[in-house]
Amino acid sequence: MEVTALADDARGDLFDPACPTRGLLDRLGSKWTSMAVKVLAGAAPAEVRFAELRRRMPGVSQKMLSTTLRGLVRDGLVDRRVEPTVPPRVHYRLTALGLSLEEPLSALRAWAEAHMAEIDRANHAAAAEQVTGADDSAVL
User: Fold this and answer.
1) Could you give the CA distance from residue 55 to residue 105 in angstroms, rounded to a whole number?
2) What does pTM read for this prediction?
3) Which residues, 6 or more positions from 27, have their beta carbon under 8 angstroms from its beta carbon?
């Protein structure tokens, strides 16, 4: 599949298989992206060092955090600054574009937290149906 670039004033189309919006939504939908943006937004306009980001994001591996931040930098959502020390100190901060992402991600996090009990009950019910042999493949 060929991905096309959009003109500066163009709007993406999620339903177009070649639209880069799909890849962007994959990246933005990551829990690690949401956590990183939240931590960086809480510190804005100050910078946060890599080690501090990792400490504030329980469960993230160094590799996953590095990959997430690299994508955010590439997308223009985060600025990266390296101090030429041994070892180098790497600092991150949200750009204006990245800061504009905090509000919608915050709303999505709040929705997920508010409805997690309902989602959990639905998952347990679906698992119980699978155990009892209920099969909806006939519906398909």
Assistant:
1) 21
2) 0.80
3) 33, 71, 72, 75
Q: How far apart are CA 122 and CA 131, in angstroms?
A: 14
Spatial separation of the C-alpha atoms in residues 72 and 101, rounded to whole Å: 11
> How many angstroms separate the most distant Cα atoms in the chain?
63
Q: Which of 36, 112, 121, 118 is nearest to 70 (CA)?
A: 36
SS3 string, 40-60, reads HHHHCCCCEEHHHHHHHCCCC
Percent of residues in the chain assigned helix, strand, coil, to nearest 5: 55, 10, 35
* pLDDT by position in tens, the chain (length 140): 444 555 666 788 889 888 888 888 888 989 999 999 999 999 999 999 999 999 999 999 999 999 999 999 999 999 999 999 999 999 999 999 999 999 999 999 999 999 999 999 999 999 998 888 755 565 55
For the CA atoms of 74, 43, 50, 67, the dihedral, rounded to the nearest 10 degrees, stands at: -30
Placement of tokens 């994959």 in the chain? 26
